[in-house]
Design brief:
45% of the residues are buried. Helices cover 35% and strands 23% of the residues. It has 2 domains: 116 residues, Rossmann fold, CATH 3.40.50; 179 residues, Dihydrodipicolinate Reductase, domain 2 (2-Layer Sandwich), CATH 3.30.360.10. It contains 11 helices and 15 strands. The radius of gyration is 20 Å and the shape is globular. With 340 residues, the protein is of the alpha/beta class. The strands form 2 sheets. A 9-stranded mixed sheet has the order 14-13-12-11-7-10-9-8-15, with helices on one face. Strands 3-2-1-4-5-6 form a 6-stranded parallel sheet, sandwiched between helices. The longest helix is centred in the C-terminal third of the chain and has 20 residues.
């Protein structure tokens, strides 16, 4: 038996990727799955050929299972706080799908529970392990484009009836906002690249003229961020756009520019055009494309060596605060100072 048992909360799209990632780690195996219907949990276990896995339909019973040490929360957004608080109170380490909370009060409640329990956390801003993200971070660390003074990270990803989460994702109580339900990946990417604390946010949001996908909240937003040192950033998010999935990055430094996997730097003497780096881009919204195995391997290293993840709940809270501030600013038509 592997030393860490994992419980998966939820049986939807992303749950399968979490199961595969944990089953592929030498220290973990999936020992419990939770669903509103126990038969669905059992079917998910059978689908992935899990031999030591129990099916549950009650969270309290699952959390009482001594064979479970890590809880991975893959349920719809509005359940994350309640389930996360309960798991932390039970002393379980946490993998949290984003968004971890749909409002500031829920975020603070979850943070308090995790701090009190002293458990390890990682939030699934999984693109931090995408090869392009890792390449950009290496370029920035090497000073290839100098010191950044401006950054853009945009998330255009239309989510209509063809999208597996569409039915509940369009509702305000479960989807939240364009940034919370999806664009938070871009917010987190901007923070990850800029390496500074956000100080102020100003935003606009809207519906298209017809709102054909019937979103209850504005599915399009543009968010401007001023960081503590005066550096500027922008995040555009649209989940009703009509186009293939894209994840666009542009980082301007005083020695050059990074534009997705293209680089121009005056430190590279004689460069006359963009240099293209052949790497894996974040160019698909399919969760099976995302590097969950790398995230899980990183998290187990954090647990085994007793250190915090760079993507832990405390760090993710700063990404979520920008999302909350963006919504406040768009509705109040004024800047919002951070922290909230």
């Amino acid at each position: 038996m592997k030393e860490f048992g994992v419980a998966i909360l939820g049986t939807g799209w992303v749950a399968g990727s979490h199961i595969a990632a944990f089953e592929g780690n030498p220290h973990t195996e999936v020992r419990a799955i939770l669903s509103r219907e126990k038969d669905r949990a059992a079917a998910k276990a059978a689908e992935h050929h899990l031999t030591h896995c129990r099916a549950y339909d009650q969270l309290e019973d699952l959390l009482a299972d001594p064979a479970v040490h890590i809880v991975s929360i893959c349920t719809p957004h509005h359940l994350h706080v309640r389930q996360g608080v309960a798991a932390a109170n039970a002393g379980k380490h946490l993998v949290l799908e984003k968004p971890v909370a749909l409002d500031l009060a829920g975020l603070r409640e979850l943070q308090a529970a995790v701090r009190a329990a002293g458990v390890k956390t990682v939030v699934s801003f999984v693109l931090r392990w995408n090869p392009l993200f890792e390449t950009i971070r290496a370029l920035l660390a090497d000073g290839v484009v100098g010191r950044l003074f401006y950054g853009e990270v945009d998330y255009p990803h239309g989510r209509g009836p063809w999208y597996k989460q569409y039915e509940w994702n369009v509702t305000k109580t479960m989807g939240g906002s364009s940034l919370l339900t999806a664009g938070c990946h871009a917010v987190d990417g901007l923070r990850w690249f800029m390496g500074r604390r956000a100080a102020e946010v100003f935003a606009y949001s809207n519906f298209s003229a017809q709102n054909p996908l019937r979103y209850e909240y504005e599915p399009n937003s543009v968010t401007l961020v001023k960081f503590e040192d005066g550096t500027l950033g922008k995040i555009a998010s649209s989940i009703e756009c009509v186009m293939p999935y894209a994840f666009d990055i542009q980082l301007l430094g005083d020695e050059g520019t990074i534009r997705n996997n293209q680089v121009f730097s005056r430190r590279w003497v004689g460069q006359r055009g963009w240099a293209t780096i052949p790497t894996i881009l974040p160019d698909s919204g399919d969760v099976s494309h995302h590097p969950f195995r790398d995230q899980v391997n990183h998290f187990l290293d954090c647990i085994l060596n007793s250190h915090e993840s760079h993507a832990n709940l405390e760090d993710a809270a700063m990404t979520h605060e920008i999302c909350f501030a963006s919504e406040i600013s768009a509705h109040q038509r004024q800047p919002v100072r951070l922290p909230l």
